[in-house]
Amino acid sequence: MRIQVDDVHLYFDVDGPALVPDGPGMAERPTIVTLHGGPGADHSSFKPIFAAAAEFAQIVYFDQRGSGRSDHADARSWTWERWADDVIGLCDALDIADPVLLGTSSGGWVALTAALRHPDRISRLVLDSVMPGPTEERLAVFERLGGAEAREVARRYWAGESTDEIRQAWRNVCLPLYSRRPDGDPDAADRLRRIVWNDDVLEHFRHSLAARFDPWDQLGAITCPTLVLAGEDDPVATAPAARRLADALTGCPVRLHVLPDVGHGVFRETPAHAFELLRDFVTGGV
């Protein structure tokens, strides 16, 4: 389904009901709005695993502008602020009053930006594998997981090299190191093939947007309860960075879980544990 949000049509999909029978009445369940990473990927990265969350919440998926089946729009509108405002615009269009925003990887950057720009519109925040560590910290994890070659490929890729050689090396050498449990996720290869990528958004991120995201001195302004999930072996959103993020969220209740033997994308790496934590967070107390 596609819906008009300001100047674009955004593709969205839904798992699970918002209202469920409860004796003589209907009980309202929380609505979780998922924000995919990439940037430039799409919502299919959440499927089918997030169907598990539909047991206790309504799940809304959507493709951010520039990505997937949504309008690409003008590249000048591919900004953290515009993406964040689109989230609120989508919630307005769908009449979602108190969304739980769940962002994975760069989707968490969008969720954080939305929480800062629209603090009265978000009930809870879930940040999965979100904050990148300093370059040296990330390179050290790549070297620990994949040796000197992985470190050098990551260094060159993050330095902005745009040759086909370095992009292919990144895909072949570094991306496999994102996951610590590839054999435990038989759908992983097919899920990657299902994503409708916009490489222009990814390149825009590499060369411009990544350097412009620096919310650290604003994080104390976030007031909604926040769940931070991280993998101890994540080579991008490092475990120390997740701990620094939790410490910086001084204005809200925070739950931090750093999981051993887990890489990038906690919900993909250890779904049973992650969804147990999510259920408790969105249906329980603060």
From TrEMBL:
The keyword Hydrolase applies. One of its GO terms (molecular function) is aminopeptidase activity. InterPro entries: AB_hydrolase_1 (IPR000073), AB_hydrolase_fold (IPR029058), AB_hydrolase_sf (IPR050266), Peptidase_S33 (IPR002410). It comes from the Bacteria. GO terms for biological process: proteolysis. One of its GO terms (cellular component) is membrane. Keywords: Hydrolase. Residues 30-267 form the AB hydrolase-1 domain. PANTHER family: HYDROLASE, PUTATIVE (AFU_ORTHOLOGUE AFUA_2G14860)-RELATED, MONOACYLGLYCEROL LIPASE. Belongs to the peptidase S33 family. This is Proline iminopeptidase.
